[in-house]
């Protein structure tokens, strides 16, 4: 239904009286009742004649109003004056009434896509719905051309802005499959003749057969590089070959007959076909077919062709016609070389097992397994037979708890097949059959088993792997002594602890107050923060942090600091909690002032206080965090106050206190400490005394600067 709305200003220049399209929804219950009060309005730009024609389109549950605008401009190319456009407006779920400008028809072409006798039109829409090869302007040019002379049009599609860095442009090639115009994209992309053919593919033209070779040629424009590229189509005959064969061979199924005897064979079906330029009559292909080509050097083939004696290769020829699949069958027989030769009276085998464990290249020099960091390891087993042929040979491998079997490396080449038995409560067991029927005498076979150790998180008891080799014809007990081997894997924790320390504030005041209080502790408190991080690959067991603070001037025992508070995010901290004391000694008037002045000017420049091992003059805080997983962090916050009466006893004008924090795991032979230098953090507090005259009668040393250092 078309409904026009008249706007002010009279008719438009093209004679159409509207700039907007109105959709009046007709209620199905009342056939002649139009809802004129609530129309759905879709608005176009002025002067575009939006609404010149409309049509309602639906697909499934979706409905659109398709609106024509004869004088609209293209969003993709504004240089074309008033070419007209088509808009698609969704009905429902579109409260703003927006419409999408369709670019179908940006480029057009015609060809024989369905049948050689029909003609179809193809259109390019380079920015339609912002899908496909987005940004390359795929579809800016289309060209129908018969590239393979099959009577059906193939397709060239230009993408002039396709580029990784600049707008070189590309042309994509699609071959008509001949089934309902289904186009198959080739892996090749056409490019310009030089490295930078700007906007190559902006235009494509079918030139016809300009060189009279029976194939159509094309020209591709690259206008930003002022060039056009001529591409000549070459005749191509594409031969396709396929070989059909069973995925496996059952050696017990005797389906074939050779020389009147049942035999094991596989039927190899060799097929050829070709497509492309017509060839009169047929094409004759000569071929050679070989079997068991991947066998080891200087070893006999396991299959042969009876039509060619006992050779592993057969030659033949085949006539093939265009687009027809021609096949030929060749049976290949299994060759079983079997002869029993005994060098001993009882034909006894003599198996010997040896092996070793190997870690990845990153840990190849280690003699232990680091839990947490080594995810896999290799169990390398060598099996040798010093006696006669060993029949029904098998390896019985017992894995400990925590190790899991993944696979056998190069399983097919090593002729081993394993079954897993994990019914046992604490271990996994592998039963592996070795060899094909038997293991040759005086032979040696090597196997590599990939094991998973990622579930190991604790270095408890060492792991033991037991390997035992058996066969049906090894009866001498003396020969069984070297049939078994036990490999031990030591487990270790690789621990790396990082400690960092910080001190706040940067300065504070100490000394006698102006009010001459008999009790005067520091108003500002000294705050220390220590971070302990488990940065190693393994869990760090039983971690301790020892904090040592210089707390006296030797040989005196008076305490320099009082502990106000200690908090930790993990575990618990322990220390000797003594009685808090901030008392200041009395001074004797002017004599003390004169004495202070003399002492200050005669003080040494600097004194550094630090702690030694088991130093009784130091304050020792011990924090126990327990086990720390890799990546875990523990934080200790400590608040101290200085006792001014003791600080004033020292005769140095500059004091530096070195506070150390040392993290360490428990002493255990299964723990290996990495980068031990990172386990200690040193934090220094430096104090400076300053004279200040007060009322011309008293002197006090009143400032202490604390500088955090690592």
Automatic annotation (TrEMBL):
GO molecular function: integrin binding
All residue ranges annotated as the Integrin alpha first immunoglubulin-like domain in the record: 233-335
SUPFAM superfamilies in the record: Integrin alpha N-terminal domain, Integrin domains
Domain of life: Eukaryota
Residue span(s) of domain Integrin alpha second immunoglobulin-like: 342-486
Intervals holding FG-GAP repeats: 124-183, 187-248
Membrane topology: Single-pass type I membrane protein
Matching PANTHER family: INTEGRIN ALPHA, INTEGRIN ALPHA-4
Signal sequence range: 1-31
Family label: Belongs to the integrin alpha chain family.
Primary localization class, coarse: membrane
Annotated GO CC locations: external side of plasma membrane; integrin complex
Name this protein carries in UniProt: Integrin alpha-4
Keywords attached to this entry: Cell adhesion, Glycoprotein, Integrin, Membrane, Receptor, Repeat, Signal, Transmembrane, Transmembrane helix
Organism of this sequence: Chelonia mydas (Green sea-turtle)
Subcellular location: Membrane
Boundaries of every Integrin alpha third immunoglobulin-like domain copy: 497-676
Biological process terms in GO annotation: cell adhesion mediated by integrin; cell-cell adhesion; cell-matrix adhesion; integrin-mediated signaling pathway
């Amino acid at each position: 239904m078309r409904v026009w709305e008249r706007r002010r200003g009279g008719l438009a220049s093209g004679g159409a009286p509207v700039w907007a399209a109105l959709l009046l929804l007709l209620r199905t219950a009342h056939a002649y009742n139009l809802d004129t009060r609530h129309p759905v309005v879709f608005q176009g730009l002025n002067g575009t004649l939006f609404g010149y024609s409309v049509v309602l389109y639906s697909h499934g549950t979706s409905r659109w109003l398709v609106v024509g605008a004869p004088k609209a401009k293209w969003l993709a190319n504004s240089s074309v004056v008033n070419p007209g456009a088509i808009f698609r407006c969704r009905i429902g779920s579109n409260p703003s009434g927006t419409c999408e400008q369709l670019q179908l028809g940006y480029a057009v072409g015609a060809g024989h896509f369905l049948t050689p006798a029909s003609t179809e039109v193809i259109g390019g829409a380079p920015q339609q719905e912002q899908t496909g090869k987005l940004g390359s302007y795929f579809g800016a040019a289309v060209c129908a051309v018969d590239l393979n002379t099959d009577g059906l049009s193939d397709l060239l599609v230009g993408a002039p802005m396709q580029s990784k860095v600049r707008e070189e442009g590309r042309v994509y090639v699609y071959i008509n499959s001949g089934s309902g115009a289904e186009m198959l994209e080739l892996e090749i992309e056409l490019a310009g003749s030089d490295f930078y053919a700007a906007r190559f593919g902006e235009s494509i033209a079918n030139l016809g057969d300009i060189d009279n070779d029976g194939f159509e040629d094309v020209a591709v424009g690259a206008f930003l590089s002022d060039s056009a590229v001529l591409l000549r189509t070459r005749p191509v005959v594409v031969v396709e070959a396929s070989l059909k064969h069973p995925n496996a061979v059952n050696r017990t199924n005797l389906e074939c007959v050779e020389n009147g005897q049942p035999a094991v064979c596989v039927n190899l079906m060799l097929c050829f076909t070709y497509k492309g330029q017509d060839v009169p009559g047929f094409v004759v292909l000569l071929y050679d077919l070989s079997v068991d080509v991947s066998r080891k050097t200087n070893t006999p083939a396991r299959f042969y062709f009876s039509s060619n004696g006992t050779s592993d290769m057969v030659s033949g020829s085949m006539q093939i016609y265009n687009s027809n699949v021609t096949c030929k069958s060749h049976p290949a027989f299994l060759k079983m070389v079997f002869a029993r030769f005994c060098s001993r009276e009882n034909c006894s085998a003599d198996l010997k097992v040896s092996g070793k464990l190997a870690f990845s290249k990153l840990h190849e020099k280690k003699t232990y397994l680091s839990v947490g960091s080594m995810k896999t390891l290799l169990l390398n087993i060598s099996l040798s037979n010093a006696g006669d042929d060993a029949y029904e040979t098998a390896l019985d491998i017992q894995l400990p708890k925590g190790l899991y079997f993944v696979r056998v490396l190069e399983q097919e080449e090593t002729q081993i097949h394993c079954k897993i038995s994990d019914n046992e409560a604490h271990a996994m067991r592998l039963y592996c059959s070795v060899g094909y029927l038997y293991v040759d005498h005086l032979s040696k076979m090597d196997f590599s088993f990939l094991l998973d150790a990622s579930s190991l998180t604790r270095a408890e008891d060492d792991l033991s792997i037991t390997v035992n080799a058996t066969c049906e014809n090894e009866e001498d007990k003396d020969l069984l002594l070297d049939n078994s081997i036990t490999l031990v894997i030591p487990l270790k924790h690789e621990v790396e602890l990082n400690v960092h320390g910080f001190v706040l504030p940067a300065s504070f005041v100490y000394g006698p107050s102006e009010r001459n209080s008999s009790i005067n502790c520091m108003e500002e408190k000294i705050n220390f923060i220590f971070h302990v991080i488990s940065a190693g690959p393994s869990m760090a067991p039983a971690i301790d942090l020892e904090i040592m603070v210089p707390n006296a001037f030797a040989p005196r025992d008076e305490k320099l600091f009082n502990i106000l508070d200690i908090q930790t995010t993990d575990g618990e901290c322990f220390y000797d909690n003594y009685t808090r004391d901030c008392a200041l000694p009395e001074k004797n008037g002017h004599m003390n002032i004169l004495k202070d002045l003399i002492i200050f000017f005669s003080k040494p420049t600097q004194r550094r206080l630090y702690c030694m091992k088991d130093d009784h003059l130091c304050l020792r805080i011990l924090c126990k965090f327990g086990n720390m997983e890799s990546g875990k962090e523990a934080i200790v916050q400590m608040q101290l106050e200085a006792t001014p009466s003791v600080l004033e006893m020292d005769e140095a004008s500059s004091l530096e206190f070195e506070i150390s924090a040392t993290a360490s795991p428990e002493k255990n032979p299964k723990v290996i400490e990495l980068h031990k230098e990172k386990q200690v953090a040193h934090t220094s507090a430096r104090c400076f005394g300053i004279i200040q005259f007060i009322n011309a009668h008293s002197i006090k040393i009143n400032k202490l600067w604390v500088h955090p250092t690592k």
